[in-house]
Amino acid sequence: MSERLFQPQYLVALRTILGKEIYRFMRIWPQTVLPAAVTTSLYFLIFGTLIGRRIGPMDGISYMDYIVPGVALMSVITNAYSNVVSSFYSSKFQRNIEELISAPVPNTVILAGYVGGGVVRGLVVGLLVTAIGMLFASGLSFLHPWVILAVFLLTATLFALAGFINAVYANSFDDISIVPNFVLTPLVYLGGVFYSINLLPDFWQKVSLGNPILYMVNAFRYGFLGISDIPVLPALGVVLLGVVGLAVWALWLLWRGTGLKT
């Protein structure tokens, strides 16, 4: 089966879906890319510059330098997720997804095309936010570039898959906003983006370990600054396990035709 996926017709299908997804968000970049730059600039200005002066260093690192990796990864998470959930649900709503799933194209190619588009958008926005953060931060460095790249790709893939699954189950445009508003946003803000969990009481430190975003943020911060509240290899393992689990779930939904076949 894996050899069949590299047949020319399947590569054409993958390139077509992926190209459509990239063109979709780049065509309206003032709505998809620019808002992230404006929002994160406000985060850096308010939290990093104004509030950060009162908070002081965090784990021996200036507060501005400390929050830049987390804010950058936060933008990757939200953009990778929103790109896939909105695009795939729009295909369902317009009824053109039926043509795609009835075509002789493997489900893995369909999934890879949509997820790839979310990953590209997450990386584009993440690089932009990181570049803006470097204008505010004075001591930000790239101590472990391979860790940074691995967390970038794994996190974007994980939340692109999550967006795909949300779109499969969604029955209305309201449904695609429930998870970001009531699940994703609280997990992001409680995932150590703006603070170290070492500041929390022991009980809440243990509760925080149940938040998967905590592992991503800390591994990403380690890549830049060399500090982390959680060992890096277990953190990467948690993210990788999440990617595999969601990929299997998404392929199973496609195979069953859940929410797609009438």
Characteristics:
single chain; 262 residues; mainly alpha
Write up what this structure looks like.
- The protein has eleven helices and no strands.
- The chain is an all-alpha fold.
- Helix 4 runs antiparallel to helix 8, helix 7 packs antiparallel against helix 10 and helix 7 packs parallel to helix 11.
- The mean pLDDT is 87.
Topology of this protein?
Layout: H1 8-27, H2 29-32, H3 34-55, H4 63-93, H5 97-102, H6 107-136, H7 145-169, H8 175-189, H9 202-208, H10 212-225, H11 232-256
Helix pairs in contact: 1-6, 3-4, 3-6, 4-6, 4-7, 4-8, 4-10, 6-7, 7-10, 7-11, 10-11
Write a compact overview of the structure shown:
The protein has one domain. Helix content is 76%, strand content 0%. The chain has eleven helices and no strands.
